[in-house]
């Protein structure tokens, strides 16, 4: 860049200068930013600064404190953090209280594993049932406290901002008191009751389970067909025939007390005329009753070679029919199974599978229970809490139900009533903790009524209709669940949790509903925790001096952890003076049956309204090929490893570049792509900062004095600002940050920056064109750093302080830049869309010239537009020279064969300072290698 030996023009060019490095080096730098925010008390300053603003409350659904964070935790908390930060920067007071779910079976299970582990601290020498309950609860508390602290630090490392010092936990003493108080509300309003009803039961964990604690896996189940001989019927030809049932739970046969039929179903009375070769269970001459529509399938399954149908009749003819239990004549029945088995009409009976007749075991099925109870049939307790038969299953006592099929088959075969047996593989409920199959089992449990005078179901459905869902499909999902669900079983037969602190009068069986007793319980829990319930003398203490503790049963069941987490709004929001209902609940889509569901029922039942105004759900995280992550497959992406290799900002960028409403994918290739996207955004910020070096407020030009190109950029900022603020209002962030990235890469780096490099580097410092560009760069920096701050808090902070250095300043103390309404100009935007389209056509020709060696760069070219073409009408030649980054643009005079656009080498010499090729280069005696503009800038600088 010299015109002669000794002359150097490099110092006259305004090259970018910034301390903001090209490399982010995030894994090393991010911890330093966290330390700085802690040092300057950023969270407390935000709260003080926001005093008086409208509150925004995203109530945190508590993660479970029993292990290190996984990628799903990271997705969830990052999305919450982005929404909170964006709400704060849009002018709200976004107070966020992170919390943890600390009670329940998973933690008990871990402590018990330590007891059983021969290499653990007890060398497998502790029997859980022999450990004093208070000691066991203390170990559970210590386990939860450890993992709570681990997870808190991991969340903080992800850049999640919140009141970490004031976090909540369900095991905090005030929390336990509040949970007991919420149970007390249902006790006092009458919705809490104890009843016998089948519930999901884990024989391994010896407790009832909620639907949200159950997952479905393929399971190999035994099956059987068995006949119940008819002993009494109005139609004589039915007596002696066998009503045949099919079941996938042979172990429930000892608990059978009735059969169900469909009143409008056509049934057939058939006689076996012949059996297939090898068939030994059915015999010629046997008479069976099955649904006419299922005869073919039945005959194939049990091996009927020939049969005849005596007659077909409606199910209503089975009313009043009495059968015998198929084990009545079994020699091993120890005198049991002598009861009658009535046939009852059931609306739930279909002909989709089986025989069209359904065996009813009232202790082991919802339909079974309700139908038999409606007819006054007692519910036997044939199965104990460990899954073994009780004495109420004569001949099978002590046998585990999952190992009972051979014994049941053999007993039925001995009576001659086993018609078929085998196995099927089907979807079956399992405990998501132990991964073992569960059973339906009727036990005395505590329930909250859905349809009593409190009308929880009806009120919940109304609340769902009034809630804003993102995406909206969540409304139907949770609505259908609430509409169909039974009464809420809230009791668990475990030790680590908040007890259902109620008393039952032994003489009457009545539940004690006394507010004074409840108040004493809650006061004690607030001071001592729920351990107070388990201490000696607790019953006398809480019942008070006017009641005899021996006259009352002290309930020792604990409350379902879903009730606990569902009541967090009461002690996290209400007790801290935060608005109720919360603005937003945000969790994975599985929480429609989990936390969203329990929170809705609990709040509606206790307060009459939902605890949220809006619900946002996100999908699950899969690997790059769409497979579920598992250690065995080796496809797990751990957030700790991502932050170690790439930094938290890359992980956060992945979240916000994904469609979070659907399942997300992550892996090495996807993370590498996110790192590349981050690099482009960082380069944009670096270029802005470099070209704003030394910028002062006095340089700014009024909007009216800006060139069209600058005003177009400002218009684009209004469009993006609208997009961002709509996302803040609607909680729908899908596509927002990909759009901001595209703006940086396409509108800025590949267009605006490319065009304005010449002016920023080579114009005089105070030239209107350069001042206009730097006016826009100032707005771009303020907009982009604040827009990026919610998703890339570390990088945005670095980019802000690189320009506005401060000991205690922070971009996170700023609001989103207030974009003036006057910047919006739709007509200008439409015009510049045409300009860019015309530019693309000319650029293609210039690229061809470069490839074929006619020019080295676009500045060595001239572009000619025909007067009839659109380009000639859009901009004058001098502006086209800027936009096309060429040395000359000519508009061909009318007449002749005009090209729409053509290119050729520019006439003249190359300016050694700006590299434009112009005829005027060489005309100056003092600076023969400079163009007139560069000569003037150099002379002025030297003066």
Automatic annotation (TrEMBL):
Zn(2+) binds at residues 911, 914, 931, 934. It catalyses: tRNA(Ile) + L-isoleucine + ATP = L-isoleucyl-tRNA(Ile) + AMP + diphosphate. A motif ('KMSKS' region) lies at residues 628-632. The keyword Thylakoid does not apply. GO terms for molecular function: aminoacyl-tRNA deacylase activity; ATP binding; isoleucine-tRNA ligase activity; tRNA binding; zinc ion binding. Residues 33-666 form the Aminoacyl-tRNA synthetase class Ia domain. Residues 710-863 form the Methionyl/Valyl/Leucyl/Isoleucyl-tRNA synthetase anticodon-binding domain. Keywords: Aminoacyl-tRNA synthetase, ATP-binding, Cytoplasm, Ligase, Metal-binding, Nucleotide-binding, Protein biosynthesis, Zinc. It is an enzyme of class 6 (ligase). Its EC number is 6.1.1.5. One of its GO terms (cellular component) is cytosol. Its cofactor is Zn(2+). A motif ('HIGH' region) lies at residues 63-73. Residues 908-936 form the Zinc finger FPG/IleRS-type domain. Binds 1 zinc ion per subunit. L-isoleucyl-5'-AMP binds at residue 587. ATP binds at residue 631. It is found in: Cytoplasm. The keyword Zinc-finger does not apply. Its main location: cytoplasm. One of its GO terms (biological process) is isoleucyl-tRNA aminoacylation. It comes from the Bacteria. Catalyzes the attachment of isoleucine to tRNA(Ile). As IleRS can inadvertently accommodate and process structurally similar amino acids such as valine, to avoid such errors it has two additional distinct tRNA(Ile)-dependent editing activities. One activity is designated as 'pretransfer' editing and involves the hydrolysis of activated Val-AMP. The other activity is designated 'posttransfer' editing and involves deacylation of mischarged Val-tRNA(Ile). Belongs to the class-I aminoacyl-tRNA synthetase family. IleS type 1 subfamily. IleRS has two distinct active sites: one for aminoacylation and one for editing. The misactivated valine is translocated from the active site to the editing site, which sterically excludes the correctly activated isoleucine. The single editing site contains two valyl binding pockets, one specific for each substrate (Val-AMP or Val-tRNA(Ile)). This is Isoleucine--tRNA ligase. It comes from Teichococcus aestuarii.
